[in-house]
Amino acid sequence: MLSEFNLIERYFTRAPKPAGPVALGVGDDCALLRPFPGMQLAISTDMLVEGRHFLPAADPYKLAHKCLAVNLSDLAAMGARPLAFTLAFALPAAEPTWLAAFSAGLFHLADQYGCELIGGDTTKGPLNICITVFGELPHAQALRRDAAQIGDDIWISGSLGDARLALAGYRDELKLTDAQFADAMVRMHTPTPRIKLGLALRDIAHAAIDISDGLAGDLGHILQRSGVGATLEIDSLPAGPVLATQSTTLQRNFTLTGGDDYELCFTAAPAQRAAVLVAGRLAATPVTRVGRIEADTGLRLIDAQGHPVSIALTSFDHFRTP
Amino acid sequence: MLSEFNLIERYFTRAPKPAGPVALGVGDDCALLRPFPGMQLAISTDMLVEGRHFLPAADPYKLAHKCLAVNLSDLAAMGARPLAFTLAFALPAAEPTWLAAFSAGLFHLADQYGCELIGGDTTKGPLNICITVFGELPHAQALRRDAAQIGDDIWISGSLGDARLALAGYRDELKLTDAQFADAMVRMHTPTPRIKLGLALRDIAHAAIDISDGLAGDLGHILQRSGVGATLEIDSLPAGPVLATQSTTLQRNFTLTGGDDYELCFTAAPAQRAAVLVAGRLAATPVTRVGRIEADTGLRLIDAQGHPVSIALTSFDHFRTP
C-alpha cells in the first residue's frame, strides 16, 4: 500500500534544474522561487472535478495533460512564460498504475514548457485536481482583460468548437463518424495551451483571454472590464476541422458558445495586423480576425454580408442547472 | 440563483491595497505579484476535503479560518511573511448564507496577516477547498527541513494534543466535560498560524516544520531530510490545557502523535536558547525545549529521569485505512 509520502516521492518528485527559478522544490513546508529582477509573477489556479470536468473513467495521462493545460492557458492569456506549478489533489485511492500514467502525462506537458512541479498536497476524497501555476512577465506587459481599446481588431487563435462537438458526441446530441469523434475528442481531452502565441503577442496585443467557457461569454469579460462593446462577424469564426463539416447553424452555435477549446481571444490595433500575423507564424498557430471593439457596449453579431444575426447567447456557468 | 461570476464578485473580490505586492488581483486570467528585490517567494498549497478534514456540518466561518490557517502555518514554518493567496473550491451549491460566512471567516484571518486573496476558481462538486499561499523571505533565510544540526535543541511552540483530544471527543473515545470539549474544539477548528514566531526565528533557528500530522511524524521529516536523529524527553512535551487534565499515558500519546495543532517544531543551537525565548516573547507564543538533535539516526524517547520510553509511533497518512 502506497503511503502519502511514498506517493509524492515516487511519482511527483524530481530534482529542480540548478540554474532555474526554483530555489527549493517538492518536500518542504513551502517551495521557494527566485523572482527575476524587473519581472512580475503571474499566478492562476484551476480545479477540475470528476463528473463535472471529466468522466470517472478518464484516461489519467490525458487528464493530467488537461489539468495542467488549462492552467498554462491562463498564463498564455496574460503573455506570461511558465515557471512552475503546484498540484493538490484528492484521490479515492492510491493506485500505482493510475498515478504512474497521471504523473507521466503531467511531466510530459510540463517539460514542453519548462514548467517545474514545486509542491503540492495529496489527500483521500472524491477525485479532484487543483493546480496553481506560476509564470513571469516583464512589468506592465501583461495582456489584461481591461485593456481593449475602441477600434481594436478582435482575433482568435486556432479553431473553435471541436471540443463542444466531442461533448455533443458523448451526449448523443448528434451523429459523428468514429474518425470525427476521435478527432474532436483530441481537442476536448488534450488542448494545446497557446503559450508561444501569448509570448509573441506581448508587445502587440492589448487585451487577451483564454476561451474556456465559450467565446461569447469570455469575450464578454473583456468587454465588461474594458468598458467597451464589440461586433463579431459570426461566419468568420474559425470552426475546428470536424465542426467545419457540420451545418452552418451548428458551426455558428459551437464556435460562439462552445467551451473547452482553450484558444486565445485577443484584441490589437488595426496597425498591428501584419505583426499579429507574424506572431502567429512564429508561434506556429493560425490567427483569424473576427470582429472589432466598439464604443457601444454589448456584443453584436453580423453575417458575412453585414446583416445582424440573432443567437441566444449563453456561457457555461458551473452553478447553473443544465 | 447565484452564478459563478456573481459569486466571486459578491463574496471574494476586494480592491488590492495600492502600495502592496499585488499588481493585479481577482478577475483576470492570472493575478500579478510584484516581487521585492532580494526576496524569495515561498509557496504552499493545501486541500481540505469534506468528511476527511472537516465534518459536513462544519461552520463555514471556522472552516474558512482553518483552510487558510493551515496554509499560513506552512509559511510560518519557513519563516516567510504572508503576501497573498488563491482559493479554488468545489461546492455542492452556491448558498448565499454559507458563502457570506465563509468569506467573512476567510477575510478576518487574512486581514490579521495582511494576506490578500488574488484569484481562484469555483466549480460545482463535493465540497473541497484548495488554497495556495504566497509569502516572501530574504534569500537563504528560509527555515528548511534539511537544516537541523547535530547538537541542536528541539523546540515546540504553544502546546500539543488538544486538537487530537477534540477528535477523541467527537469519536466518543473518552469522556470530556462540555467546557473541556468546547476548549479542545477551538484548537481543532481555529488553529493559530505561528507567523510571528516564524518571522522572529529567521536568524535564530536552523530547521522548522509545522506539526500537522503529529510531532513524531513531522519531526521525522526533519530528521530524515537532515540526515540526523533525535532524543525527545516525552514528559517535557507541552500538553494543551485540556489534555493536561488527562492521564500521563494519554498526554504522552496525544502530544507525540496527535495532529492538527499547527504548532512549530524547530531546532536551534544551544547558544541560541536566550534568543529563542526572546523570539517567543516577541511573538507572544510560549516556546518549550523538548529534546536534542543527535548523530544517531532514528527517534528516541526518554522520560524525565532519562529512562527510555517505548510508544508505538504512527503518523497520520491520508491513504492508510483507519
Short summary of the structure?
2 copies of one chain form a homodimer. The first copy, chain A, has helices at 4-12, 60-76, 96-112, 162-170, 178-189, 195-200, 215-226, 248-257, 273-282, and strands spanning 22-24, 31-33, 39-49, 81-91, 116-124, 128-138, 153-157, 208-211, 229-233, 263-268, 287-294, 298-302.
Descriptive report:
Two copies of one chain form a homodimer. With 322 residues, chain A is of the alpha+beta class. Chain A has helices spanning 4-12, 60-76, 96-112, 162-170, 178-189, 195-200, 215-226, 248-257, 273-282; strands spanning 22-24, 31-33, 39-49, 81-91, 116-124, 128-138, 153-157, 208-211, 229-233, 263-268, 287-294, 298-302. Chain A folds into two domains: 4-138, PurM-like, N-terminal domain (60s Ribosomal Protein L30, Chain: A), CATH 3.30.1330; 145-302, PurM-like C-terminal domain (Phosphoribosyl-aminoimidazole Synthetase, Chain A, domain 2, Alpha-Beta Complex). The first copy, chain A, is built from nine helices and twelve strands. In chain A, the strands form three sheets. In chain A, strands 8-10-7-11-9-12 form a six-stranded mixed sheet, sandwiched between helices. Chain A has a four-stranded mixed sheet with strand order 3-6-4-5. In chain A, strands 1-2 form a two-stranded antiparallel sheet. In chain A, strand 1 (22-24) and strand 2 form a beta hairpin. The longest helix of chain A is centred in the first third of the chain and has 17 residues, at 60-76. The first copy, chain A, is globular, with a radius of gyration of 20 Å. Chain A starts with a helix and ends in a 20-residue tail after the last strand.
